[in-house]
Design brief:
Rossmann fold
């Protein structure tokens, strides 16, 4: 991708998982910038440009959202539902990145229009590989809808 770095929103409340995702994506050859949020309220405020995030120039739209399911204050599935119901946000790819493998969680995520559901591997090496592969696909190979290519 030429120009501005690819903006990735990471919604993860586990600091160890967040650090691993951030480190892996920062070292990825495709330029990217990561905005990290640890709860559902702040990510929704950012996406819906409320409060401290009201100005579009300081709260650009992400081109990819990595979303954990188990979040404080507002659950990840509710965040996903609100994103996919909003006309300006619904085309942003949302990847569920969770430790859960339950059929109920997977089904609920896809019923709410998640673009992908990835289970976090337990091992550090496997987690790093998953993040690198995710970066290759979503930051490099995947073609975004035209309205998602800019960060406005």
């Amino acid at each position: 991708m030429k120009g501005a770095p690819f903006l990735v929103m990471l919604v993860e409340d586990n600091p160890d998982h967040a650090e691993l995702v951030i480190r892996t994506l920062e070292s990825h050859p495709i330029p990217n910038q990561i905005k990290h949020f640890s709860d559902g309220i702040h990510v929704l405020d950012y996406l819906f440009r409320r409060g401290e995030y009201e100005k579009p120039e300081t709260s650009p739209r992400p081109q990819l959202i990595l979303l954990d399911l188990r979040l404080p204050r507002v659950d990840g599935l509710d965040v996903l539902f609100q994103i996919k119901e909003h006309p300006e946000l619904k085309n942003i790819p949302v990847i569920i990145l969770s430790t859960s493998e339950t059929k109920k969680d997977v089904k609920s995520a896809y019923e709410n229009h998640a673009n992908s559901f990835l289970v976090k591997p337990a091992g550090l090496e496997e987690f790093s590989k998953l993040m690198n592969d995710l970066g290759n696909f979503w930051l490099g190979w995947n073609t975004l809808p035209p309205d998602n290519k800019s960060q406005s």
